[in-house]
Design goal:
By secondary structure, this protein is of the alpha+beta class. It has three domains: 80 residues, Non-ribosomal Peptide Synthetase Peptidyl Carrier Protein, Chain A (Orthogonal Bundle); 105 residues, Alpha-Beta Complex (Cathepsin B, Chain A), CATH 3.90.70; 148 residues. Helix content is 47%, strand content 9%. The chain is built from 14 helices and eight strands. The strands form two sheets. Strands 3-8-4-5-6-7 form a six-stranded antiparallel β-sheet, with helices on both faces. A hairpin with a 5-residue loop joins β1 and β2. α1 crosses α2 and α2 packs across α13. The longest helix has 33 residues. The chain is globular, with a radius of gyration of 23 Å. 38% of the residues are buried.
Length: 424
């Protein structure tokens, strides 16, 4: 298939199979995320249509973020996979960003970074941060059963500042919005206000999301214009003014509830003994919860537990990417211990590559699971279980090495090793 034919096939799948509402922005240079409003899961769906409906070859291990930045780069990727002779456009394009590590943690760490306080230890609680599996075996990064109590407790212990909830569950949405407006009007320069809103309701944002709803924490401030709010979104590295009413509407959605306020003027550097205690509390040495959860959900759908259908599997694991990117927190852990111990930079980079492979393999797993749900070809489960086994092995390697440098750091700081986290 020629490159021009692949581009036309992409246009056809988006318009007909996926019924995109943004075809007016379609062109060879169109960015799949910013222009065509495709998040990582929808891009995998697009590639799956191209493979199953048009017979294109798409080896799942080759699907990476740089391959689907634009229509052009996706066409080049598919040309490489399906032809050894086809000339492709070698123009370098901006890599597609779809990274969400942990919005709550990113918000509270922003003040630490501004004050030159090492924020990296706080990410110890992120790589295996809590998620849930619903009664009908759906993976959920946000649910009523999830709270941030542990992060609240450890932020105060580590950095000396308490986060207070201003959002009252028993109050109405309007009452909470009124309280937020009051806090924004009265707050000092050192006071930070966080609020949970539904990012799906803000399509004008630089990053576009197809997930509905999309609960997400941001930080807000008033501006000189009463009709505008300044929004800081550390998780997506975005800052800018947005229409106040649009923001209030996103806060008023029934799918979101939460908000905190804290004064950063008394923030302090974390003490080694507290960093050690936090690592001990967070480190799960004997299992990898996300990979275990995917296996549990896959098993349930294959067995038909509680009358759930195999065709529901794509939806059940739709939020895999949102949770998988939390594994980037391992880089913060390695960086913290690596710098303290003066270990070689090239070795650190090698472990970052292992972490990147771990995260990208979750995309391969999700792609194969989407294919299984659509085709009902049960033979695909063999490759999926093999990938899950690979994930367990690789993450245990990461944890083993992280634990080794953690023990060295404990010894460097004269901390009692016998009470450190259990070895992997």
């Amino acid at each position: 298939m020629q490159r021009k034919d692949i581009i036309e096939s992409i246009r056809q799948v988006l318009a007909e199979n996926m019924q995109s509402r943004h075809m007016g922005s379609f062109s060879e240079s169109a960015k799949l995320n910013e222009d065509l409003y495709l998040d990582s899961v929808l891009i995998l769906q697009l590639i799956l249509h191209l493979e199953l409906d048009l017979g294109l070859s798409v080896p799942d291990e080759n699907i990476t973020a740089s391959d689907y930045s634009t229509v052009s780069s996706l066409a080049d990727f598919l040309c490489r996979m399906n032809s050894k002779t086809e000339e492709v456009d070698e123009t370098v394009t901006e890599e597609f960003e779809d990274v969400k590590v942990h919005c709550f943690v990113s918000c509270v760490c922003e003040s630490l970074k501004r004050k030159g306080i090492d924020h990296r230890p706080f990410y110890f609680g992120v790589w295996d941060a809590t998620f849930t599996i619903s009664e009908n075996f759906q993976l959920q990064y946000h649910s009523d059963g999830i709270n941030h109590d542990q992060f609240l407790l450890w932020y105060e212990r580590l950095f000396g500042v308490r986060l207070d909830s201003w959002y009252k569950e028993q109050a109405s949405k309007q009452e909470n919005i009124q309280e937020m407006n009051r806090l924004l009007s009265d707050k000092s320069k050192t006071t930070n206000l966080m609020v949970m809103l539904d990012m799906y309701q803000l399509p004008e944002r630089e990053n576009k999301f197809s997930q509905n709803p999309f609960p997400h924490y941001v930080m807000l401030e008033n501006t000189d214009d009463p009709n505008k709010l300044m929004m800081l979104d550390p998780d997506f590295r975005w800052e800018g003014e947005i229409d106040r009413q649009r923001v209030l509407n996103a806060i008023a959605q029934p799918s979101v509830a939460g908000g905190y306020v804290f004064d950063d003027q008394n923030l302090m550097h974390a003490k080694p003994e507290d960093v050690k205690a936090y690592f001990d509390a967070c480190f799960i040495s004997s299992s990898n919860p996300l990979t275990d959860a995917i296996r549990t959900i896959l098993n349930a759908h294959l067995s038909g537990a509680q009358d759930i259908s195999l065709s529901d599997l794509s939806l059940a694991l739709r939020e895999t990417r949102v949770i998988a990117v939390r594994k980037y927190a391992y880089e913060h852990g390695f960086a913290f211990f690596w710098r303290a111990l003066g270990l070689p930079e090239d070795d650190f980079e090698r472990w970052c590559d292992v972490i990147e492979e771990l995260i990208q393999t979750y995309s391969s797993i999700q792609y194969q699971i989407m294919k299984l749900a659509q085709t009902k070809e049960l033979s695909l489960q063999v490759a999926i279980y093999a990938l899950l086994n690979k994930q367990n092995k690789n993450e245990m390697r990461i944890k083993k090495r992280l634990h080794e440098v953690y023990l060295d750091w404990c010894e460097l700081n004269d901390l009692p090793i016998e009470t450190c986290a259990e070895a992997v």
